[in-house]
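Write out this protein's structure.
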Amino acid sequence: MISSGGGIVGEKRESIIQNCYYDVSKSSNGYSSSNVEENGIIGKTTQEMQSDDFINLLNSDVFSKDIENINNGYPIIEVFKCTVDYSIKTPTNQNVIVNITSINQFQELDGWELSSDKKTLTKEYTENVKETILVTDVEENEKQINIEINNIDKTAPDVDISYSTKNLTNKNVIVTITSNEEVQEVEGWNLSSDKKVLTKEYTGNTKETIMIKDLIGNQTQASIEISNIDKTAPNVNVEYSTKNPTNKNVIVTITANEELENIEGWELSSDKKTLTKEYTENTKETIIIKDIAGNETQVNIEITNIDKTLPDITIGDINQDGKIDVTDFLMLKRHLVAGNRSNWNLTGDSLLAADMNENEMVDITDMFMLKRIIINEM
């Protein structure tokens, strides 16, 4: 051991000191800087003699750094020196192997594997640990070894999945995956600067599973399901209550293959798939139909068959000769029994004149009413 005063250490052979070193800044050891390398005695500065290089020069298997300052910082000799090595010190999801080596031979230690030359103890750790073990060499020297492993991580990342919207939409949906730890990049996804958030914009519905890995390879599955994107316009059908000439209102019915938004002035059915509107006059217009997601389609409405202008006719004057008589009666009677005789059917103003009670139907009641009028005029 080097003395605390920086004195000589080495070996003495035939009254000659060899392979010895002294601190050139110390005068108490009997040597000065002028005696450098005199008789195998080598001078070193205090800084040199307290360095790691100096320990290696002496013999790092025997000498150690004076961490506790028991020798004024100069190297100290350890009778039983051990070195602890770890298979990996960076974060890992694998087991860590610890090797304890010495120039001394170890005794067996429970839970550890002893090498054939008895100079290495090995143990594989499956999880983090902080413990102190006692090793013993064959000469019964004992030493406490501190084992500390804190780089094992076998826990998969915990992730949360959120969607920009879960309501029906005709827009893209952004999916955000937030992790409780840093994760690796995933192809097609954007990774945030803190490496904890992945985002992706989906243009269509999908159902897929992606693998999320933390920086050391632990992985978890993230299930993505989007079913609320609808970019298809509704398919609609337009119907009119009548397309024949009429003096009544016309009801327009729009039926869709999916739920629709309401339109001002229209009535929406309870299942939200049918719109109706009653028109009182002829019109030509285009309306916009929207589904719940906001997709639009145009519907052209055209009504030209409404005629509420009263005709210049006399009820009962079926042949329009300016008088009501038996000829009109016979024409009405033939109309009622015409069957396949199309030439007996009344049309146009003649048909309107035959509707004695003006209920838009010509039947036997109208014939009796016409007969009564003719009899009363006789």
